[in-house]
Amino acid sequence: MIDWFFATLKQYPEIAIFLALGLGYYFGKFTYKGIGLGSVTATLIAAVVIGQIGITVNQPLKAFSFLMFLFAVGYAVGPQFVRGIASSGLPQAIFSVVQCVFSLVACVVVAKFAGYDLGYAAGLYSGSQTISASMGLATDAINRLGLAADQTKAYLDNMPVAYAVTYMFGTMGSAIVIAIIGPKLLGINLVPPARTTRGTWGGKKQLGGPGTAWTRWAARLQGAAGWQSRRSARRRG
Questions:
Q1: Which of 15, 164, 182, 210 has the fewest beta carbons under 10 Å from its own?
Q2: CA dist., res. 144 & res. 78, Å (int)
Q3: Residue 200: how many CB atoms within 10 A of its CB?
């Protein structure tokens, strides 16, 4: 039975993809003391586990799925990014430059110390810093090096593995340090400022948003129907 299941996943990789999505969205909703994997990290973990079977996904599907992932991330965080730039653009820009420099230096040092090749190093940077867009840039850069086909393929295959493994530490590690370890070391209570920040930066449903117009129109129809019934009753009376 299990052999048939593994053979089916290898023959139809699209089943493996949707299986990883389903498992990721199911287990991503669970939390422990306010900290959870989330759907993205849980899906990556499920994909890594399922990928141990030896499933091969063709390159066009990889590229399409990666672009859809970038689109979904940008669609989700885009409004917050625009609001942040509009209110405090210069401090955020300076912080971004400092963060990028330190992140790049740290990943280069770790990759050199661990002896990673180009694929693992690029995946380490993309996953640990949760910068998914760098995967596309690294893929294009590796393809332009003019290496042998088998070596290029090995680098490109190693990249998503390192990305998926380090992404979970990039997300969970940041949450644990910022929410638990950091406040305890500094003696800070994050609950009041977190509520203030959520009220300032959190999204709110604006007037005329999704569902508002339909609700009002339905209410108007209901009011018109009631008025018509009362008018008919007065005529009969």
A1: 210
A2: 31
A3: 9
Spatial distance between the Cα atoms of 1 and 7, rounded to a whole number of angstroms: 10
Q: What is the pTM of this model?
A: 0.57
Cα 113–Cα 119–Cα 123 angle in degrees, nearest 5: 80
Contact 36, 30 (CB under 8 A): yes
Distance CA 196, CA 72 (A): 27
Residue given tokens 């003019």 in the structure block: 146
* CA–CA gap between residue 21 and residue 56 (Å, rounded): 17
46 and 98 fall within a common domain: no
C-alpha distances out from residue 24 to 43, 88, 228, Å? 4, 35, 52
* Beta strands at 31-32 and 35-36: parallel, antiparallel or unpaired: antiparallel
Half-sphere exposure (Cβ direction) of 64: Cα atoms closer than 13 Å: 7
Same domain, 184 and 98: yes
74 located within any domain: no
Cα–Cα distances (Å) from 125 to 91, 100, 147, in that order, read 24, 11, 21
**Quick one: 52 and 95 in the same domain?**
no
Instruction: Convert the pLDDT of each residue in 9-61 to its tens digit.
Output: 888 888 888 888 888 888 888 877 666 777 777 887 788 788 777 777 777 77
For 134, other C-beta atoms within 10 Å of its C-beta total 19
- Within 144-211, where are the H helices? 149-176, 182-186, 191-201
